[in-house]
């Protein structure tokens, strides 16, 4: 398999860099081809602006969605963005790795998504009508490929449990897993999250590395998060509401969009906390 790892940490001696190296070594040992986009090392430009669209004339009003659509269609996106799109099309598996910063990804990685996930490539794909709302959420350009997150967090695992004060980790990662990865079609694997990392010492590293190696060995076989398919009949079109007969009665929020979400979260917490 071909694996693209997009890495977002500014320090090569960090815990994240050490975990990245463990992942790469294990993948290569398994015979996989690995490419890395190291965003800080590559001085990735994180913000969307006019410079991203060389065809835009100076006096034209800059409308990012329209500019992205036109540039993708005309194959005139900037070279750095085109190189990342080419890597995404090359890879069977995409891994995004980052430290949790303010309950999300570092800005540089969000900027990678903003610039690389272009209109016509990652969104605005497929027929949009009153019968079909595009190819997205399980369908789209990247369908048939797999993606997963490797995340480190300062907070405790309990703080990210179903009743933890930070909110459940699956809910916090939902905008990335569902909104960014599932949206253009990826099957999204459960994330590899390491908690309470700021006080980690060398002795703690090996058990974490062992668990990460195991996840790298099972990339092809780990069942993806069972997000509901937009066009699979679970949603009403065009309101895109979940059918009233699906999900727990009265339930709201992101777990509704996982088939059996409440049950699987409760089960996971049961396993984690006995
Ligand atoms: P490092 O600082 O590089 O290392 C962490 C520890 O691992 C160190 O003690 C190091 O000695 C040890 N270690 C053990 N083995 C190794 C090895 N082989 N190589 C390197 N180090 C090793 N946390 C949250 O939970 N939620 C948040 O919302 C959040 N927001 C944040 C926002 C910002 C702006 C910042 C800076 C931090 C935030 N944090 C948050 C904490 C953050 O998630 C952690 O600081 C981060 O995950 C640590 O990862 P690192 O790679 O930077 O670790």
Overall outline: globular
Oligomer: single chain
Name the average pLDDT. Answer: 94
**Count of separate structural domains:** 1
CA(first)-CA(last) distance: 36 Å
Q: In CATH, what is the homologous superfamily?
A: Flavodoxin domain
Q: Kindly name the structural category.
A: alpha/beta
Pick out the low-confidence regions. 266-274
CATH topology: Rossmann fold
How does the major sheet shape up? 6 strands, parallel
CATH architectural category: 3-Layer(aba) Sandwich
User: What is the percentage of strand-forming residues?
Assistant: 5-15%
Radius of gyration: 19 Å
Topology, element by element:
Elements: E1 2-7, H1 15-29, E2 33-38, H2 64-73, H3 79-90, E3 93-99, H4 107-116, E4 146-152, H5 169-182, E5 187-188, E6 192-194, H6 202-217, H7 261-273
Parallel strand pairs: 1-2, 1-3, 3-4, 4-5, 4-6
Helix pairs in contact: 1-6
Flavin-adenine dinucleotide (FAD) is lined by residues 9, 14-16, 18, 99-103, 152-155, 197-198, 200-202, 205.
């Amino acid at each position: 398999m071909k694996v693209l790892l997009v890495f977002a940490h500014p320090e090569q001696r960090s815990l994240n860099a050490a975990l990245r190296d463990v992942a790469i070594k294990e993948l290569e040992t398994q015979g996989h081809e690995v490419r890395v986009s190291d965003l800080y090392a590559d001085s990735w430009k994180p913000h969307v602006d006019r410079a991203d669209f060389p065809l835009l004339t100076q006096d034209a009003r800059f409308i990012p969605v329209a500019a992205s659509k036109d540039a993708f269609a005309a194959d005139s996106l900037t070279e750095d963005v085109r190189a990342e799109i080419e890597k995404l099309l090359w890879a069977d598996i995409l891994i995004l790795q980052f430290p949790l910063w303010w309950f999300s990804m570092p800005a540089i990685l969000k900027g990678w998504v903003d610039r690389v996930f272009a209109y016509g490539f990652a969104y605005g794909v497929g027929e949009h009508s009153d019968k079909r709302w595009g190819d997205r959420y399980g369908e789209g350009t990247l369908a048939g490929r797999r993606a997963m997150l490797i995340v480190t967090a300062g907070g405790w695992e309990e703080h990210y449990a179903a009743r933890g004060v930070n909110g459940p980790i699956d809910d916090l990662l939902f905008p990335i897993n569902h909104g960014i990865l599932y949206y253009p079609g990826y099957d999204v694997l459960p994330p590899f999250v390491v908690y309470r990392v700021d006080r980690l010492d060398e002795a703690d590293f090996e058990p974490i590395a062992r668990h990460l190696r195991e996840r790298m060995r099972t990339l092809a076989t780990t069942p993806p998060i069972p997000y509901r398919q937009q066009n699979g009949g679970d949603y009403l079109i065009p309101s895109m509401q979940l059918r009233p007969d699906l999900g727990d009665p009265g339930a709201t929020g992101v777990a509704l969009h996982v088939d059996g979400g409440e049950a699987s979260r409760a089960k996971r917490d049961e396993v984690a906390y006995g």
